[in-house]
């Protein structure tokens, strides 16, 4: 199956709910203010957020509609409006310009962060880049073992210590080693849950501070991994991590497990952060660069 086919399959629950609602909204003989109000409410209930839903409804209100609206025409117009919002977020992750290029991955436990790091390592290795994985979530022995397994799978070495070790010291050693060995990319896993936000902030800030001792420009990217199944909670996570650390981009995982894929539209509208990758499964190649047009069309159930 093509990537778009997998994306569409992954978003089928989201698309099904939207398509069914659209059929009801555009089922009347004409598109008027009441129709657009119904559309806005449908989009809000589909997790696209209040701001994005209002913007989309307004854009569709400017379109000249015939007396009868074919379902495919409504879906196409909706996909175009969604893509307009998502387009600014379609920015590939560029790991050039620094060597090693240091990427910190952050996010709460359970979002698929460690798995995402493994998939990203496999992707970069496939592009011919050398990668060093850093098991910086030293509070969870399972995360360390999981990253080691991904290292074997992707062919990327893993620097790890015993559970409870100092994550910042580990990151320092990793970056020092990477500079010596000429490694292209360093991917640093981090803890996702400490006793409270102050502890988590201190932990992440310490890693950033120590990494800068080796390279003042590092980390070059801080990527927040989100779990699509959390719905509205994803918004709270973006807000919280933007406060904790300078998040430079997003990765949305587990889109195949939810009917709440519209949340990505709400995040793009509200925060304006790049969405570098989306994930729709467990396989290595189920993490792919984000495409605004492909996502919008899959979200409303259109063909590529």
Which structural class best describes the helix and strand composition? alpha/beta
Instruction: Let me know the number of strands.
Output: 8
Which descriptor suits the 3D outline?
elongated
Number of H/I helices: 12
Low-confidence stretches: none
| Major sheet attributes | 8 strands, mixed
Q: Assess the beta-strand content as a share of residues.
A: 5-15%
TL;DR of this structure?
The chain has helices spanning 3-10, 12-25, 33-45, 50-61, 71-86, 113-126, 141-154, 167-181, 197-214, 233-244, 263-271, 292-299; strands at 101-106, 131-134, 158-159, 185-189, 221-227, 249-253, 275-279, 287-289.
Give structural notes.
The protein is of the alpha/beta class and 304 residues long. The chain contains twelve helices and eight strands. It has an eight-stranded mixed beta sheet, sandwiched between helices. Helix 11 (263-271) links the parallel strand 6 (249-253) and strand 7. Helix 2 packs antiparallel against helix 3 (33-45) and helix 5 runs antiparallel to helix 12. The longest helix is centred in the last third of the chain and has 18 residues, at 197-214. The radius of gyration is 21 Å and the shape is elongated. The protein starts with a helix and ends in a 5-residue tail after the last helix. The mean pLDDT is 91.
């Amino acid at each position: 199956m093509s990537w778009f086919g997998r994306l569409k399959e992954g978003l089928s629950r989201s698309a099904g709910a939207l398509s069914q609602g659209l059929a009801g909204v555009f089922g009347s003989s004409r598109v008027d203010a009441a129709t657009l109000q119904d559309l806005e409410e449908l989009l809000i209930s589909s997790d696209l957020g209040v701001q994005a839903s209002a913007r989309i409804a307004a854009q569709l209100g400017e379109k000249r509609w015939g007396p009868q609206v074919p379902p495919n025409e409504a879906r196409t117009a909706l996909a175009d409006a969604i893509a307009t919002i998502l387009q600014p977020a379609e920015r590939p992750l560029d790991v050039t310009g620094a060597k090693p290029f240091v990427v910190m991955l952050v996010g709460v436990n359970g979002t698929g962060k460690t798995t995402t790091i493994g998939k990203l390592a496999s992707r970069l290795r496939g592009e011919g880049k050398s990668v060093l994985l850093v098991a910086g979530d030293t509070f969870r022995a399972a995360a360390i073992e999981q990253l080691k397994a991904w290292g074997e799978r992707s062919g990327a070495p893993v620097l790890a210590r015993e559970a409870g070790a100092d994550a910042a010291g580990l990151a320092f050693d990793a970056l020092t080693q990477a500079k010596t060995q000429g490694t292209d990319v360093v991917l640093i896993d981090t803890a996702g849950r400490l006793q409270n936000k102050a502890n988590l902030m201190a932990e992440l800030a310490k890693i950033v501070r120590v990494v800068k001792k080796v390279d003042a420009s590092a980390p070059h990217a801080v990527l927040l991994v989100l779990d699509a199944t959390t719905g509205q909670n994803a918004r709270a996570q973006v807000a919280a991590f933007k406060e904790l650390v300078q998040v430079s981009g997003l990765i949305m995982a587990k889109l195949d497990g939810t009917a709440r894929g519209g949340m990505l539209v709400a995040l793009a509208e509200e925060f304006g952060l790049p969405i570098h990758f989306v994930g729709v499964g467990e396989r290595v190649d189920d993490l792919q660069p984000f495409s605004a047009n492909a996502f919008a069309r899959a979200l409303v159930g259109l063909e590529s």
